[in-house]
Amino acid sequence: MNRHDEQFELDAELRDLDTELSRAMPAKAPSGLSERIFAATAHELPAPGEGPAVVGRIGPCWQRWVGFAAAAGISLALTVAIWLGAQTGTDPGTGASGGAVTAGELTDTELTHIALALDAEDSQPALSEELDDLEADLEALATVWGDQSNTANTLYDDLSNLESQLRQF
Amino acid sequence: MEPLIEPTLRAAATGDQEAWRRLIEAYSGRVFGVVFRQCGDRELAEEITQATFVKVVRTLDSYQEQGRFESWLFRIATNRLRDEMRRRKRQATPTDFAAAPPETLGWTDDSEQPARQLEAREQASRLHAAIATLGEADREIIHLRYTAELGFKEIAETLDQPLGTVLARGHRALKKLKAVLEAEQADGSRATGT
Question: Given CB atoms, is B61 within the 8 Å cutoff of chain A?
Answer without folding.
Answer: yes
